[in-house]
């Protein structure tokens, strides 16, 4: 009888110790479920999802409007790096935009600086292209820094990226070529898009977030065309939905 009591007591103590040992793990899981930001941070998760983008040129290109749509894929690569207010994690990502559109003023006459045969500049009025431009874009390099935060629902980030754009017609529109006048106004169907911006993930539940981002984007052909007027600056607002794995 005494041996039975001792055996039962030993079993109860073993179960109690085991339960105590598992409690922190269970608590951590419960904590992660209640803290989606910490869960993604601790697991160094993959992220993927669709997005849409609307933007406007600034300065001399303020009459240019943009609408893009695509899909993004990224991976958190590092644990938290502690650097005071810059503490956070590094993430590498990329996106593809099969929908890329730019809306520019319709074809019109515009003033340019022309040069006489003797080399004297003068103001001339020339026909200029315009309208809607369509294409695709690939951003293979997105370098993102996810800031360390105590929030359970909001994850802020900063990013820098580089993209490539192909359009079915030369972009941006420029003076139309006129061989009779010796005018070669072509730009390029290929353009580059260096960019940078800030954003946030707003977690609606575990491993699901709505994403908001504001970026500044420069569009330039790097002189691949005869002329390179480019879009010196545009402001782009992106809204997306992310799945975390």
Short précis:
This protein has 245 residues and is α+β, with helices and mostly antiparallel strands. The chain is built from two helices and ten strands; from the N terminus they run ααββββββββββ.
Layout of strands and helices, then pairs:
Elements: H1 2-34, H2 36-43, E1 46-57, E2 65-76, E3 88-103, E4 108-115, E5 121-128, E6 132-147, E7 154-171, E8 188-205, E9 208-219, E10 231-244
Antiparallel strand pairs: 1-2, 1-10, 2-3, 3-6, 4-5, 6-7, 7-8, 8-9, 9-10
Description:
- The chain is built from 2 helices and 10 strands; from the N terminus they run ααββββββββββ.
- It is an alpha+beta fold and 245 residues long.
- The protein has 2 domains: 1-34; 44-244, Beta Barrel (Porin).
- A hairpin with a 7-residue loop joins strand 1 and strand 2 (65-76).
- Helix 1 crosses helix 2.
- It starts with a helix and ends with a strand.
């Amino acid at each position: 009888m005494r041996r039975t009591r001792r055996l039962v007591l030993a079993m109860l103590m073993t179960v109690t110790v085991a339960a105590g040992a598992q409690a922190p793990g269970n608590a951590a899981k419960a904590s992660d479920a209640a803290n989606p930001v910490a869960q993604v941070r601790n697991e160094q998760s993959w992220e993927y999802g669709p997005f849409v983008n609307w933007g406007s040129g600034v300065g001399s290109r303020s009459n240019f409007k943009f609408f893009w749509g695509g899909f993004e894929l990224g991976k958190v690569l590092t644990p938290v790096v502690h650097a005071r207010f810059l503490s956070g994690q590094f993430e590498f990502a990329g996106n593809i935009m099969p929908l890329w559109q730019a809306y520019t003023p319709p074809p019109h006459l515009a003033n340019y600086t022309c040069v006489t045969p003797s080399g004297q500049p003068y103001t001339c009025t020339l026909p200029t292209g315009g309208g809607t431009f369509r294409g695709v874009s690939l951003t293979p390099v997105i370098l993102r820094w996810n800031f360390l935060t105590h929030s359970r629902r909001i994850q802020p980030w900063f990013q820098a990226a580089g993209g490539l754009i192909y359009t079915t017609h030369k972009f941006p529109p420029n003076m139309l070529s006129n061989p009779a006048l010796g005018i070669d106004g072509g730009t390029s169907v290929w353009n580059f898009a260096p960019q940078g911006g800030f954003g946030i993930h707003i977690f609606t539940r575990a491993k699901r977030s709505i994403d908001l981002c504001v970026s500044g984007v420069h569009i330039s052909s790097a002189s691949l065309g005869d002329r390179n007027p480019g879009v010196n600056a545009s402001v782009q607002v992106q809204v997306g939905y992310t799945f975390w794995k």
